[in-house]
Amino acid sequence: MAFTAKDVKELREKTGCGMMDCKKALTEAEGDMDKAIELLREKGLAAAAKKSGRIAADGLVYAYVDDVNKVGVVIEVNSETDFVAKNAEFQAFVDTCAKTVAQKNPADVAALMAEKAVDSDMTVEEMLREKILTIGENLIIRRFARFEGDVVTYIHGGGTHGVMVLFDTDLAGKPEFAAYGKDVAMQIAAANPTFVRKEEVPAEQVEKEKEILKVQALNEGKPANIAEKMVMGRINKFFKEVCLLEQPFVKDQDLTVAKYTQNTAKELGGKIEIVKFVRFEKGEGIEKRQDDLAAEVAKMVK
């Protein structure tokens, strides 16, 4: 019994499974829709797909560094509960995902899903599905970043925040540089800058900020010429908030991160430049579901 693309679409809508899995199931079931659903359920795919509608805002931010090949990865994999984030099987899966990103260099999460997982015959997508079934929660590989070169990573709070910094330096491998790198990464985790340096802030963003600050000064009753001078002082405060190098160093407020970097390079007799960084915060931007039990009960009574 033949089947059409429409049948594949219908099966996908009924089970929530992927297009290829639906096509395989219909081929195996010789076009019989009910048999195909049964096959998908037997393989556990329909159950995994069912869980995929549930909100996963917990989980883990994790870092992996391959020192030999000079590759660093920070990855966020979400689960529904903190309990699962502490599960050794889940943590091992996240580690596998990070190593796969490091080795295979996928362009994005979709490309990562199609890759063969390191030390496995399964693709990352197949492994993810298997973990959803065995762990019993929806799991999502949300995002990752991969840098090549001299990187330093820092994970805070057992996986709530992850930072990776790429340096241009000739001091890599020195314990003093490693300590400096960790300080910078911790600074990023704590102070949450957006840019490395002032030059990276888009001109339109600076102008917008100046406009806001000028209106604030005028609203405070300051004359226009004084307001202009106040804007210049306050814009520097803005740069201190958003630019890493301009920020006061958390361990010594008398130093900026730029000055701390210069001092360290001088002491160690080499060069250090912070090229770029990435900072992931677990679950940021994911809307967590608020269960309203009263509304749910009222709905059921109706």
Automatic annotation (TrEMBL):
Region (Involved in Mg(2+) ion dislocation from EF-Tu): 81-84
Main localization, broad class: cytoplasm
Domain Translation elongation factor EFTs/EF1B dimerisation span(s) in chain numbering: 72-284
Subcellular location: Cytoplasm
InterPro entries: EF-Ts_dimer_sf, Transl_elong_EFTs/EF1B, Transl_elong_EFTs/EF1B_dimer, Transl_elong_Ts_CS, UBA-like_sf
Keywords: Cytoplasm, Elongation factor, Protein biosynthesis
Gene Ontology terms for molecular function: translation elongation factor activity
Top-level lineage group: Bacteria
Assigned GO CC terms: cytoplasm
Pfam families from the UniProt entry: EF_TS
Function, in words: Associates with the EF-Tu.GDP complex and induces the exchange of GDP to GTP. It remains bound to the aminoacyl-tRNA.EF-Tu.GTP complex up to the GTP hydrolysis stage on the ribosome.
Sequence similarity: Belongs to the EF-Ts family.
Protein name, UniProt field: Elongation factor Ts
Native organism: Neobittarella massiliensis (ex Bilen et al. 2018)
